[in-house]
Structure formats: C-alpha cells, structure tokens
Amino acid sequence: MLAAAVAALALLPLGYIAAYTVDVGWSGIQDLVFRPRVGRLLWNTARLVGGTVLLCAVLGVAAAWLVERTALPGRRIWHVLLVAPLAVPAFVNSYAWISLLPGLDTYGGALLVVTLSYFPFVYLPVVAAFRGLDPALEETARGLGLSGWAVFRRVQLPQLRVALLGGSLLIALHVLAEFGALQMLRYPTFTTAIYDQYRATFNGPGATMLAGVLVLLCLLLLLAELRLRGRRGYARTGAGVARPGRPARLGALTVPALLGLAGLVGLSLAVPLVSLAVWLVRGTSAGLELGVLATTTGTTLGLAAAAAVVTTAMALPAGWLAVRARGRLTTLLERSTYLGSSVPAIVIALALVTLAINVTPWIYQTVPVLLAAYAILFLPRAIVTVRAAVEQSPQVYDDVAASLGSSAPDRLRRVTLPLLAPGIGAGAALVFLAVVTELTATLLLAPTGTTTLATAFWSASSAVEYGSAAPYAVVMVLLSAPATVLLSRDARRGLTT
Amino acid sequence: MSSLTVTGVTSSYGATPVLTGVDLHVPEGGLTALLGPSGCGKTTLLRLIAGFDDPDSGSIDIGGRLVAGPGRSVAARRRRIGFVPQEGGLFPHLTVAGNVAFGLPRRQRRDAGRIDALLTLVGLDAGLAQRSPHQLSGGQQQRVALARALAPEPSLVLLDEPFSSLDASLREETRQAVADALAASGATAVLVTHDQSEALSMADEVAVLRGGRLVQLADPRTLYRSPRDLDVATFVGESVVLDAEIRDGQAHSALGVLPLEGSCADGPARVLLRPEQLRLAPPSPGAPSARVRGVDFFGHDARVRLELPSGLALSARLEGWDLPTAGADVSVGVVGAALPFPAGAADTPATPVVA
C-alpha cells in the first residue's frame, strides 16, 4: 500500500502531462507542437545530446583505459581528479566558463561545458567494467595472436558495452533535463524554452506541450536502452573477484597520455575552480554578506535534511518489497519510481505548480510541495541503496533470530535495523547532497522568500553579479565534495540516476 | 532434550503439493537425517518443525507439547528450537560472542565464561570470541552457528544442509565436530541433507523423502542393506541391479546362482547387490565372465567398470592394491546375499523391511 502510494506520487507529473495532452486534443497538439520554433528546439537539443554523448564516450573510455589498464604514473590520483568534476554542479561550471569567456554562448560552448560536467558519468561505470574484466580473456586473445589494439577492439570493447550504454543514457537524460547551465550560456533547448514560456505566461498550454515533447524524448531514450540491454545479459559469469590484469606499458606515449589527462582535468576541474576563486576574491573585496550566506546555507541544509528523511522513508517500503516480496507488481512499483525521476526537473516542477494551483491551492508555494518534487527526483538514489541493504540482510537472519526466542519488535531492533542502517544512511546522504545543489525545481517551487544556495547563486549570476554569486557556488562545491569521494571509491553505487 | 513427533503433515506451495502425509518420530537425544534429492520437501518439513511456516494439515509435537496442529500454532520463538541454516547465517553486525549470546537472556549475554564454554563445546578456540563472522572460515562459521543454536539449551536442534557449502576436506572435520557437540549436549537433532554419505555416517536414523512422502525410516545399516525399493537403493549408494529368476529360494542371474536375503516367491525378479560384494578373479571356465571397461582409481579403493557378455554394464568396488587393467577378461564372484524385488510388484521388496 505504502509502496503503491509512493509510486503514484512518482508518476504524478507524467500523469499530469499525459492527461493534459489528451485534454488539448490532436488539433491543439498540431497547433502547439508542429511549429518551426519547436523544430529548432528539437534540432538544438538533439545535436547537443548527440554531441555530448559521443564526446563523453570517447573521453570517458580513453581516461578509464589509461587509469585502469596502463602503467601510467599516479593512477590513483588521476582517478580521484577525473571523478572530482562531479562536485561542481553543471550550472556552476557554466557560470565559471561564461564569466571568463563571454563568447561561449554558442553550440560549441554549450557542448564544451556540458561535456566537461558530465563525462565522469561514462568514466565511472567504464572504470568499474574494466576492473571487472577477466584478464584471462585478454590473455587468451593475446595467445591467439591478437595485437594490443585488436584486443581492445574485439575483446574489451564488447564487454564495456553495457557500462558505456548505461553511462551514455545517463548523460543523455541529464542533458535533456539540464536547465541552469544552458540558460546561463543562452543556448535554447526544451528546458530553457519551457522555463521562458512559464515565466512569460505562467502555465500556458505552450509550456506544458513543450514538456510533453521533452518527456517523450526521455521515454524514447529509456525504451532504447531497455531494448539494447535486454538482448544480452550483463552480469559477469563465474564467481569470485577477477585477478587484476597486467597493466599495459605506454613507453614513449606516456608523456602525451599524461598531457591529455592533465588537459582534461585542467579544463573540467582547474578552470571552474580557478574562475570561482577569482570571483570569490573580487566579490569579497566588494564586501561579503556573511550573515546572508549563513542563513542561505542554513535554509539549504534544512531543506536537504528534510528531503533526505522524507525520501528515505518513502524508499523503505519500495526497496523492502522489491527484495522480500519479489513479483511483477513490486517490480512495477519500483520501476515506476525510476521512470518518474527520469522526467526532467523542470517538467516535475511545472506539473506540481499547476496541480497545486488548480487542485490544492492551499499548499501552493509551501515547503511540502518542494519536498515532494525532491522526493520524485531523487527517490531512485535512496531506493537503490536501501534495496542493496535489504539484499544483504536475507530472511534467514530473521528466522534464526525467531528460533532463538526473539520477538518481532526485538528482531527489528537487534537484527533488521542494524543491518539496514548503513544502507539507509548512504541513501539519505545521497539525497541530501543532491538537494544541496538542486536548482531547477527549487527555482520554480520554493516558497517566496525561501532562498537556497542554488537559487541565491542563480539570481546573482543572472544579474551578472558574478562576484556576489561566487561564495554560494563555493559552499555548494564544498558540500558536494564528500559525495564525490564516495563515488570515486565505490564506482558502481549511486549511478542509477 | 525432547522427542519429536510429526503426524500426517501435509503442505503445499500454491497448488503444488510439497509434503503429503508425512509421519516421523525422532527419539529423545537422537540424530535423524532427512535425506532426499533437492525438491523432495525436506527443507519445507524442517521449516514446518521450526515454526517458520504452518502445515496445511497434520500435527507436530515437540517433547509432548503440541506446537502445530488443528487450530494451534506456536510461534517459532516459543518452540525452544535451535536452528542452524545453510552457510551458518551468522549476524554480520555482531561479533562471534554477540552471535553466540544472541538467544541468551539479557543478564547472561555478557557472561564470557558461558560463551567460552559454548565455543569449546563446538571445538573452537575461545580466542575467536571477538572476531567478526567474515573473519572466520566456512567451517568455523558453521560451528559458531551451532554454538549459537545450542546456547539457550533448546529442546530440539534443526540443521539445514549445514555442510553443503564447505569444501571436501573441511566438511569431514566440521561434521565430526558438530556430531561430537550434539552428542555432548545430548540434544535431539534433525539434519537435512542431500548427501547420502553424510546421512549414513552421522545419523542414528535416516528418513528418506521422495516426492513429498517419507519412503523409509531406518537406521543407516538397515537402510543400506535392506532398502525398501530399488529407487531408495540406488539413492543411498551405488548399486548392481540384475534380472533374475527365483527358484527354491535362490536367484538365477547373469552372475550365477545367488543366495537370497529373506524369502521370495518363485518367478521373475530383480536382485540388488552392492559393488563391494563383487570379487574379481582370473577367467576360469564355468564362472561368470566379464570384460573390464575401465578403472576409476581413488587410492584407498577403486571402481572397476565391467561389461557382461550380454552387454549389461556394472561396477565393482575393490581395494586399491590389486587391480585389473582395462580390456582384461575376468571372472566375477559374489560375496553375501542378494536382495530380491519381485518383478511387477512396483519394486517393493518381498519381505517386510525391519525399521
């Protein structure tokens, strides 16, 4: 029951868009959607998504191969440095670049900034896949007389396919949903168009129909991924951990490889950090309002904590059922939360605003609506970790405890909760950190007068007050850093959204 | 320490019957093995006894106390049973001591002497008490699981395939330690296994389950020598099954005239021999002959695969120091009696088997 309610909430925005589309009718859709402007947006969005995915795939696989499979010096440090860009939210990265080079408001600029923000999403799963590759396969291939390049192309690449696909899908969904970074670069896509429409006409049918097209694109991507993945199993056969392989020697190519990695890290990490530092210095010299910064940070942390508690609590029944009562219905419930959160934040926000105004005006512009949006967006992060924890505490512990005379509440206290605690904690932490840097939904749904780090940063940088925006960005980066460390350690976790 | 009586227990999973009318009695202090292939319902029966599930009908009685029956179901935690699951099931968030003390009353949980005594009982060094479960070997984990189960002095200990995840060398040693600990504690025990050698070597009595029914309940020797039907015979050990004609209390078979165990009506029948009853000798006229197809050498003994002139394949179990080579012709002799199963009588033995 609880799980069903959670799934229903997650699907609320989708349902709203669908209902609205039916309401508008075919002729209405024709009027609103088949316009040259929508065509231009579609072209802009498609080429940005395509370009970013391609670039990220090349950069991610190359970096992963260098770090995981070669004798490059300092591989551990490189690994952390290559994951670190995740600590810089895309809209902060975008701000860092555009404030240095105002000429970046082009396709090339958008491609550059978005790629640098998102390539770790390919890098991380591919590193994990490289780590899981059985070196015996590679050795067999070498034994059969294949060259190093042929081994990579014919043996390793096919096995990286699933990781690469997963990472690419993630990037495509993120680019489709990206709002802040593109708005700042003045690169028009569906998200920015929806936002402008919403600002201009509040909740006109135009915005909703654009959202419908955007959702359709997301669903198409998900469907494509499902089909590609469904055809072949992606679990590694055989038990045990694969023996680490012998790293490839780069020889004369070591220096160019190092320069390449240094370039990538420089562009994705050093440029934004230096830019932030420069603006921080300039901003503080103009006078830093510490009080405002502290209140904003407090508000953000409070919201994030509340969202973490609410979302994790909602994730518990779904994660528990998905393992303990496996079946079509429970899988469906779990999946529907994933589907719900793959809808771009701008669409979720738009749907919740409209629903709140029309159905329950008394909660419009209140914190609960904002928390609901966070929950829809970040539920899968919590569910995945809770699920993993439940999987590690099978029924047998409960049975044994019962046979030893322990009552149900006693079992909950002495067995179930201690076993689930790390998973629940990790899930809550992931949600917490995601909320800290959430911009889009907060921008649309935050009650008047409530300012978070992201929205304060946004209003300052939109007014081209780069200096006064910097402190907020710095706090966000500092708060995101722990999550990044977590990710670089456990490459598989937390990558489902 | 109590006896266990299961009467007419039936259980089904959805529409599929899992157990049909199972009767079982385990005497006080005895160790009974539930033996059967996977899917025969043995684990289900164990879970019903433990109280994790309820039977559809029938009753279960532990030490004279009805724990499951019409309109009555005592919760698992009130049945005073000790449960040792597959792979131990040690709580990963607790130390060895924490695991062993789990079922003890709160005041006794900190009693180090008590925990040391329990660890010693299962043959473990008391120095392991502060380790985490993942720092132990598979065999040590099983022993800790047994110590945990024995700690609250249960009336009945249930072991669900406790050795199946251990490798061969560790299995032998752990079996011995577990058998000793159970004997020392005097506990009544039920052991679920699909390994016939484990059932035969550890248990006082073996209950063979097949297709949800209890086929035979007997002590290991009786079970091996006088199985109820040929199916049980081949399940509990390697068999040599021959077609024979029974005349005047003797079996006339491809291996000559064999004496019978028990009596049997004249007529066609099948007889059971064990491979270790066969003896090989150089070929001699008049004696049944066979050709050696191959030899599986195990060191302490060997299996010699034979083919009779009729084309029938059978195997002999011989000591390892004097073996024929593949391709040789030998004569085959038989030691001891053959157990007859009249043909057409659904493979049931002619004489009632003593349980």
UniProtKB/TrEMBL annotation, chain B:
Domain called ABC transporter: residue spans: 4-236
Enzyme class: translocase
GO MF, one example: ATP binding
Protein name: ABC-type quaternary amine transporter
Classification via SMART domains: AAA
Signal peptide: none
Alphabetical list of InterPro entries matching this protein: AAA+_ATPase (IPR003593), ABC_SmlMolc_Importer (IPR050093), ABC_transporter-like_ATP-bd (IPR003439), ABC_transporter-like_CS (IPR017871), ABC_transpr_FbpC (IPR015853), Mo/tungstate-bd_C_term_dom (IPR008995), P-loop_NTPase (IPR027417), Transp-assoc_OB_typ2 (IPR013611)
Protein keywords: ATP-binding, Cell inner membrane, Cell membrane, Ion transport, Iron, Iron transport, Membrane, Nucleotide-binding, Translocase, Transport
